[in-house]
């Protein structure tokens, strides 16, 4: 995920516009929440949403996520895999299968 | 981004637990907002946050984003690149450089 | 808070437009998150925000909160007071004074 | 809404703990989003939620909203009424009745 060329493309895009100054981790975290809510707005009144709009908003959330992973010197794929490993332990198949309950209620 | 093996790993993780039934696009959109706020909580009272915690919450946001892109039959990298193209047009370098203003205020 | 006349005014506003059908608790919860993010957007790149815009977005969050309290047959002031009582216990003055730490870290 | 005594109660609660220093408008806006997502989490996997939990989280959102209105020298009820007036104009009954569409799509 975020192979070097997409990372570079995003970094160039930001550098060309001299926007790194605004991309503090805190501002990026706020931005992720802001875009996540624009994605949620596609479903404000029900489960059916315009796919094009969902696609756009999801792209915005992902973009800010990639900017933040990069800002923190992390690799998106690595942190997802690492977290998945811990989630396996919190949600063992035999307990969690078919259940949406949180791990402390399994 | 989300090379086939990470996608498969996530898909297997979900399938093993029979969780796809909960992963409607709407529920995934809600989940992205929920996790985005947990990430934001790292910065609730100021700009400095525990890096390990930020890393964890960011991984959760990314995970749900990847689950949603997959659920919609999209490719994460493709939608980010496509959106970046449109953002270039909305924020031409000569107008946007060094400015955080929204495109309709440039 | 939300004296009978403001409650009635909101209820009439909704009834006139036949909007109660959309105001399920879940949809109202989504709406609160959506508007909260529009409020947050006023501060996306820093701590200074346009007061008029903050005022507007805050009004929207409050409006949806009042619609939800009403939908659930609750009274806004009562639930805030009740919660404050419990928060007093979680954050006793002698431990919490001057500290932003969460109660389990006091 | 937020009659003088609830306002005072909240203000005293904050003052006793010397917490006003953390309550910048930006931090309060972040807090509102954070609590709104905890409310949303009650509905993460579907429309039915534990009423006690919803009540609690809703109280938290309202509390931070009242802290922010007070911090900005506003009155919660006044700003809701003012916004309602403008919303009447954006959503005239004859056009908006029974429709969840946004005002620019009516």
TrEMBL record, chains A, B, C, D:
Q: Name one Pfam family in it.
A: MazG-like
Its domain of life?
Bacteria
What is this protein identified as? NTP pyrophosphatase, house-cleaning of non-canonical NTPs
Provide the organism lineage as a comma list. Bacteria, Bacillati, Actinomycetota, Actinomycetes, Micrococcales
């Amino acid at each position: 995920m975020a192979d070097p060329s997409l990372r570079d493309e995003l970094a160039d895009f930001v550098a060309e516009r001299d926007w790194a100054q605004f991309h503090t981790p805190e501002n990026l975290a706020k931005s992720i929440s802001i875009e996540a809510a624009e994605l949620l707005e596609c479903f404000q009144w029900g489960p059916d949403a315009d796919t094009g709009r969902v696609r756009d908003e999801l792209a915005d959330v992902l973009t800010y996520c990639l900017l933040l992973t990069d800002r923190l010197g992390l690799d998106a794929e690595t942190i997802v895999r690492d977290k998945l490993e811990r989630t396996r332990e919190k949600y063992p198949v035999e307990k969690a299968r078919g259940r949406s309950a949180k791990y402390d209620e399994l």
